[in-house]
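Follow-up to my post from last week.
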Amino acid sequence: MNSVLESVAQLFGRAPHKPEKHELSIPVQALYEEKKKTRINKEHLEKLHEEHRSNHKWRNRRWITLLVVNLLFVVSFQFDVQLVEGALTASRVLGFHMADLNSALQVMLAFKHVVLNLVIGTLTVFVLWFLVGGRSFCSWVCPYHLIAEWAEKVYLWLRRRNLALDVTFHRGVRTVFWVVFALLALATGYTVFEFISPTGIVSRALIYGPTLALLWVGALLLFEIFVSRRAWCRYICPIGITYGLVGVFSPLRVSYSPKDCAHEGDCRKACLVPHVLDVTIKGRATDVRVPIGADCTRCGLCVDICPTGSLKYEYVGLHRAHPGPNAPEAQPRTESA
Amino acid sequence: MSDQDTPQPRRGKPILGEKKRLEERRKFLRSIVLAGGGVTAALLGIVPTVGAWEPRLRPPGALAENKFLASCIKCGQCVQVCPVEAIRLADLLDGYGLGTPFIDARAQACEFSCDGLQCVLACPTGALTHDIAYPHQVRIGFAEVARPQKCLAMLGQGFKGRIRDEAFSGKFRYSDIDRWNPLPVRDQTFDLEICDLCVRHCPIEIRIAQCAQGKPPSGDKNQCPPTRAIGLEAMHGGDGGKRMKPVVYEGCVGCGACEMVCPTEPAAIVVDMTKNADTVRKA
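User reply:
Got it. Predicted complex:
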């Protein structure tokens, strides 16, 4: 339960902290002791790194999924096939209502009245995204995420040449946005956030044709390219918090096992929300297998890049091979025996 | 790299270097500026909306404007189901709610060729109220002869040829020609002794005529409008009684079909979005 609270606190903006020794489980303490003794074969590791830097298995799967989902909307309207009607804010999939949780929340707060269709749509999406990981909406569906991911590559290229700034903000500001936009919807009776939401703007532009509102999205991207890496997703977007909360107890997550980890930090460099991967710093994991927190978008970049297979997707209840952190089988018996 | 959060000091041990403390403070201030900027940008969106600087016709069933803006989730499902693509979504500078649906009746009126108010059925949030089911229950606005000096009927003139120009893409369902598919208005030719295009394109008047013949749309008697919407009445005085005047009755739903097909430029008859059949009846 403690780790759940910690994961929510990090979602809201708290910085991860180094656990006290008494917070570490006995097996993981033993594991860290063991790791002190063994020297890492640097050459072998470097080779693994090289291999994994070109490994894009999950990224490719994710990009394809994201493009297919968004293209389904476009194709459904353009060719009138009615598979997925509407836009990402609210839609009908084969006639079944779906509503984006954050948009639905804004409407409920502004309108102060909920029709049955919206209840159905919201519950459907809630259950769906609970099952597939909460913020997986961000990295696997949100069209702005993909554009921002490409912009991030430009940012990193510029940054290496010192042509872009590296401005960071307190992550708690995203929570402030979430609260302020909720209160504004309630007070003004208007879905204020939707005016600046690039998710809605891009989704509608794809389906209904380009709009001037894309200029705003362009401005956001320029800010992310020249000033602050992934600023919208990291510090502003309340949609991320909404889905993050859905994913707190989600069975689909990335989990970390420190056993083979070289703690070199490639995963944190690739990650949109690197604080969730601070657990991969030596001495941070409190057990031999720990889930990555709720703010994780389940994008899989870390899974791709990890040279030692220490970060893996898991589906709680399905993966017999990777028992939960508290299961006795999780102890590294082979080493201690 | 500084793209990771600096670990916070443990409680009771606030030992941070002076430089680091300054950086933390700057970061905090920057974050406040970011919050202020973001919220301001979003608030800019509601200024013209609240001021109703640029009111537009909303789709059938739309709640009162303030409630409509509160409840619309901006998904465009109403846009997708409309057979004549009368509904469009507002853009950034339009000033009536980014992503909210509106109708430009002059370009393409809602002419009810769907019969069943598909947009209302499609709306997931009730911004288009499900309390109505038939065209005659719609209250988009109320037609009025805004430019009587332009109206051909009032000038005693007929109409011959095609409506509007070559570029005009508006569609209308001419039930006599094609029961199911709306046709481009510009493909139709007319030869009228006195112009009554607004009356003959009125979806309410068409339904009343169909019901009088015992053929209500979809065979559903509930489709029959109880009140007439528009008719030509003879004008008193003047030259030999040839001049006629379009008169809008309480059955008008403000669909804008009359505005779309009015052959004068600009249209002599337009939809007034500040009124509807209910407010007119009360007045």
